[in-house]
Amino acid sequence: MKPWNILINKTQKLGERGQSIVEFVLLMCVLMGISWGFVSFMNHNLSRYWEYSANLIINDGPNKPKAVQLR
User: Fold this and answer.
1) How far apart are CA 23 and CA 70, in angstroms?
2) What is the spatial distance between Cα 24 and Cα 22, in angstroms, rounded to a whole number?
3) Where does the chain cross the membrane (predicted)?
């Protein structure tokens, strides 16, 4: 094997390692974005559920209607 072929193979491996790091970082950014969106969506829906449940419990009985606002 010629010495310049060894150098070419080493530089190709270094380039592939850099590409793997970039792909990993981009994948992590995509996963974090999806997770953030999911948590934000679920948080909004859970707050509405708990607010509805609290109002249902408070307004049970002959008392005057009251309202709970969690936000």
Assistant:
1) 41
2) 5
3) 21-42
Q: Which pTM does this prediction carry?
A: 0.50
Query: How far apart are alpha carbons 32 and 24 in whole angstroms?
Result: 12
> Is the Cβ–Cβ distance between 58 and 68 less than 8 Å?
yes
Longest dimension (CA), the chain: 94
Q: Which residue is associated with the tokens 């270094």?
A: 14
pLDDT value of residue 7: 63
Whether 47 contacts 71, CB under 8 Å: yes
| Alpha carbon distance 26, 28 (integer Å) | 5
pLDDT along the chain (71 residues), means of 10: 61 69 94 93 85 82 69 62
